[in-house]
């Protein structure tokens, strides 16, 4: 009987696998929905057809034709938005800050992705499908970020967006200069523990790094030139840190800089201009409204909080109108989470910009879809419901900017990764399994050959502090 | 003058004689007679061939002279009547830090493990920027020296391996377990005192872990997991560059400036040439995949040490032709778990599935060997292997995973891993089936020498383990006794109040500690809050680490205390700075 059950289970699991495969390969039709495209308005009574993971058609119900064997999702009374995009995340990472040095451009967040972080699933339940998982803000030049799709249950390799655009974290202000942490309560001496200790020092640190990168590029250029002349020179030593900073100068790696105050924002614009590159996106940028013209002229985007302020000295001048003001000055603007928690309800963060900034629904929706997609150079693939883009969708049971609405289903590339009904149906069975496993352990603990020493920690213990990266301090 | 000369000669002769006498006095009391043994009447599990009922094993001069049924017993042999017993090849623990003495500091600025001289630093990017702040370039920290040879660090006394031998373990792969580049491992027989005589193969692997063991702020680069990967990648790139620089120079020395010599980069040459395998400590699926990714990127020969979740990626491991040194130290329910419901279903599943790993690897055809996984009690090696058998691994494969498989993996199957004529006489005589809980180890031979089995059978240790109870080897019982190699003899459990002297004034810390084997856990109360603390006991020393949270910033703190009864004094390290502390344990009520 037991063997039979096991066999049946195996067959079932195989079948489910086959079905899932067929689903992503085949067609999915979502019909009778209010489709908020984020790029070309809202379609009442609309349908979306996903074929092989990509959006194949979107329009009124009668304009979209699916083949007979398409999986059909009836979304009558529901709202469909693009999968939400979080331009500032620290979720699903085993570590956050390489805080030992002030320039750590050599470290890569893609080396430390944790595909088992339950936050992934929780964010799916809030319609979030793609995040920009960043290095923390402990140092002036931090690590290289990673762009992840929340394909819960899949491997790290499947979550990392293939050929993703490369971005790197910079940080200005209090965190990289380690305000309030210059003395060590356990063994402190009152001297700065890590250079720099001031905003001046942060600027110097960045300029010095770019100066070194220029020299590094020159070394490699000289080597290539010598090779062209037919010589057999020893190549320069590859330096992963300077490789990355050189890539910023070369335009292959894009800067997302944590910042608060207007003066430091202008400082980075000046340094970027000096070395011939552009800031892609200012993160947090709570005083962005003060220098919106300058940011717009530089061509940088701004990814900010909806209504967080006064949690630290450099956040005292923040205003909830920041996002709207930056947007109206022509800055590509998004609102982000910077938090496992807020990432579950980005749609409410966007809704606040309507309250504070009198924006339209579509503008607010773009703040959590198309605009962050652009800020991470992913807008050719995600961020709006347009033909040719990935079939990443969130299906709400009401208007996404109503606090009474919730997500019913979330799809990535046509595959359902969150389904509220399926989740509810599964809960009893999971609770039962958990109870049985606990019982089994309890029984085994009574056995005479019980193990006494704690076993190995599966999770690496070197993960960096989350709070340092998080600005709410 | 002549007289004087003769006198000198006489002294010399005497000295020589004395040396020779010393030299030929065996260390082991059991080996007073010639090292010839005949074990008769036993069931001989040869592993390589058929099991022999009522068989005889002849041991001479460290080797197996003969094995079979109805063999004539040599006249000079000491006869061991093992009727009703079972003879096995000595067990091999495929990944340990046995015999390396007190563990090197797990963290801290400066200082190298094992007292090796300061060597050139593996070029670490970013030091220049740090120096801009006026900081001194740090010496190579522990765990960043691939040139460290475990063979040079062996500290062996007659009793060092008592616990292993008494648990049937006669051979181990050993290396330090601190830092990233932990050192090059050595395969040793667990014999008597002369460390050099124990070495079977050196080096076997370069051991690498992804734990920097260092802090966030001042511990030095790298202090995070992604920093560890950047560090590894950079050092391997540097090793490639080093190779290129020297090969260019060696082709044409005239007109080219001589490249620098660098111990660390020189030590990495056999690694990047895929001659010396890297043994990556990796347990979770993602750790295993990260190891494979790095090995692929640099074309490294590699092994996975640990492999707790290897069952999830058995097919990938097979595809990569990987070797797993599978830990039998299965994850356990936390000792002080108040609410069992607080653990996730995933965690519970992982614990339930861990013993199935061996069976899964076997079915998938992945090469593997068992290791004890730094378990506090060597005696758990067999008991935990029995759990793998319960979880579906055929018993004969379980035995192979502790004998011939590791011998093959480490390239010593010519001379080790089975009971065959001409092989090294590492043997275990047990009262019955090795995997039966009631079985006791009766005799242990290493290199043909008999060693006393100093404790009860491996799985018969009662609650508290054999260390607490005091074994027949004459150890004092109870806590606070003479510390043994595992440090499990020292009890640090209880409440300790210590005061740390910082320039800002004294800081009082109260540790509430519980102890399991040599592992310590608990909490530390400070003026900044209460934080979980973990640690290990080694000798009379407690090493601990906790992460203080101060104004929402995390500050990792490590420390070391020397314990004398109820007094402790030592040093705390936070952000690269040391502060002394001292205090005492609150007497038990």
The mean pLDDT of chain B is: 81
Structural class of chain A: alpha/beta
Helix content range of chain A: 25-40%
Question: Which superfamily, in CATH terms, is the homologous superfamily of the largest domain in chain B?
Answer: Metal-dependent hydrolases
Low-confidence runs of chain A: 9-24, 187-192, 448-473
Number of strands of chain B: 26
Outline type of chain B: globular
| CATH homologous superfamily annotation of the largest domain in chain A | Metal-dependent hydrolases
Largest interface: A-B, 89 and 109 residues
CATH architecture of the largest domain in chain B: Alpha-Beta Barrel
Assembly state here? heterodimer
How many structural domains does the protein architecture of chain B include?
Answer: 3
Shape verdict of chain A: globular
- Residue runs with pLDDT of under 50 for 5 or more positions of chain B: 10-33, 103-138, 456-488
Q: Could you name the CATH class of the largest domain in chain B?
A: Alpha Beta
CATH topology call of the largest domain in chain B:
TIM Barrel
Our estimate of the beta-strand percent of chain A is 15-25%
Radius of gyration of chain B: 26 Å
Describe, in short, the structure shown:
In chain A, strands 1, 2, 3, 4, 5, 15, 16 and 17 form an eight-stranded mixed sheet that branches. Chain A has a six-stranded mixed sheet with strand order 8-10-11-12-13-14.
Description:
The complex is a heterodimer of chains A (473) and B (589). Chain A is of the alpha/beta class and 473 residues long. Helix content of chain A is 34%, strand content 20%. Chain A has two domains: 7-83 and 384-420, Urease, subunit C, domain 1; 84-183 and 192-382, TIM Barrel. In chain A, the strands form three sheets. In chain A, strands 1, 2, 3, 4, 5, 15, 16 and 17 form an eight-stranded mixed beta sheet that branches. A six-stranded mixed beta sheet of chain A has the order 8-10-11-12-13-14. A three-stranded mixed beta sheet of chain A has the order 6-7-9. In chain A, helix 5 (199-228) packs across helix 6 (240-250), helix 5 packs parallel to helix 7 (262-275) and helix 9 (322-328) packs across helix 10 (346-357). Residues 9-24, 187-192 and 448-473 of chain A have low confidence and may be disordered. In chain B, a hairpin with a 2-residue loop joins strand 2 (52-60) and strand 3 (63-69). The longest helix of chain B is centred in the middle third of the chain and has 27 residues, at 225-251. The chains are: A alpha/beta (473), B alpha+beta (589). At the A-B interface, helix 5, helix 6 and helix 13 of A face helix 2, helix 5, helix 8, helix 10 and helix 12 of B.
